Amino acid sequence: MSIAEPIKRAGIGADPIIGWAKNVDEPVRLATVVERYGWEFAKDNFPEVRRFLWKMSVDGVAAVLGEDVWTDAAVKQIQATSRPVVVTDVRLAEEVKALKSEGLTIVYLSREGIPEYDGREGEHLGPEYADLRVHNGGTLEEFHAQMDALVKRLAGR
What we know:
Number of helices: 7
Largest sheet: 2 strands, antiparallel
Structural class: mainly alpha
Shape: globular
Number of domains: 2
Number of strands: 4
InterPro entries: DNMK, P-loop_NTPase
Pfam family, one: DNMK
Helix content: 40-55%
Radius of gyration: 18 Å
Strand content: 5-15%
């Protein structure tokens, strides 16, 4: 599951204009870009996407319903399942605290050539917040083997 998933769903629902297609003189909407190219493309190629998601999630919804609204939604999902859970997109210290209170282990992943911090507000937590650190320095198959071993290790706790 992803902390950001409900935020992304809300963004798709709002479907803001994130750019302008000059060749056809019409607006470019978030839902269309995400459907065609995916979230990473949208965030990397349309700066308005990151700004909108942040403003909508933090300055909009969280400011009105409480700063823990997104974390509370994730915790409810965790509590509703009896299966092991992996949570991605953890970006705030408050999220780490809430997930640890549910008994989750925080794992920090790093990889050569991928900056650990890109300077964007709310986009990163450093390894100091993690219980474990995993370096992904090999092939995809090696990474999968690392994750399989980690899951077995954590399941044995």
